[in-house]
Input
Amino acid sequence: MAGIDIEGLATVYPNGVRAVDGLDLHVADGEFFALLGPSGCGKTTLLRTIAGLESATEGKVRIDAVDVTRTEPGKRGVAMVFQDYALFPHMSVSENITYPLKVRRVSAATRAETAERTAGELSLDGLLERKPAQLSGGQQQRVALARAIASRGKVLLLDEPLSNLDARLRLEARTFLKKLQRDLGITTVFVTHDQAEALALADRIAVMEAGKLRQLGSPREVFARPANTFVANFIGSTPMNLLPGTVSSTSGSETYVDEVGVVSVAGGSLSAATFSAPAGAEVTVGVRPEYLTLASGDVTGPALRGQVVVAENLGTQSLVSVDCDGTLIGVTVPEENEPEPGTTVVLTAPASRVLLYDRESGDLLA
Ligand code: ATP
Output
């Protein structure tokens, strides 16, 4: 078992693209760590640089405290699972799983025993003699995982491990992968562009944009307190409301921190806590639809008023779009409380859930 340390890492392709652009991060021993970001942000390049399949242009990669920046891939102690699984079609499941051991000249008896044991761990019992083409997508994915685990690497690197599976299998495989990682306790870094997958699986998430780290935190932190409007936009199955606003009161002082103030936005005003901005400052106000509630009865404090435009069914919840002075604001409500289109509604949010971002830089005013 081992941690991974990345220091000042840059990976520049021969065409000049800085796919990884000055990154520092630490993955703890045994951690399940997600690299998340939109297509082209550099997450696969970062994973491949950790594996040694791309060479670092600047900076260092350490695995288990050993500098492996210039070490060849086979000697880094990493096992990687590729998006397309890269199974050998002419080999049986058993031969696929134990191929890395064969390369290392491990005895046939030990290989057979490893294949049996790993197949058991990965729910592949009874399939050891089949060829990859005779397996379902989910089973092929588990063979690729089994091969990585059987190679006894110190760290497991997974490139979009679930993306080739259909929606239902993907959910099953997610649960399977999470349990497997926890049972084995192996340090695992996985790449995904699917924020729901990262939130569901990872202990911590690195959100990347254009080769740079935009936020590093637990799923709860990146969901509840995105560090900037980029992360706010990217995380969450319903987009965060990001509204132009003006700080209207800061409880008397010119600037203040850790107190509740009021910010005016389309349709009224909201209370916000923990920000530093003077009265009159033009900001972007971020509030998730999940944290807004439809107020019943009279509201005395800050609130937004508007008319219901449309409601979308999300299963047990509905996402209601409310027109507040021409700006659409989303709020999720339990399905049974879904208001009729045209109804005038009042929205409130706890001050702790209303975030203020710098209008120019998009950074959280924390
Ligand atoms: P995706 O989710 O689409 O796989 P990603 O976040 O994994 O994207 P990368 O594949 O790491 O992103 O690519 C990062 C940047 O580097 C992109 O601009 C891409 O076009 C560029 N890039 C990737 N591979 C190469 C290469 N071999 N040569 C030159 N540029 C490359």
Q: What stands out?
A: The chain is about 25% helix and 35% strand.
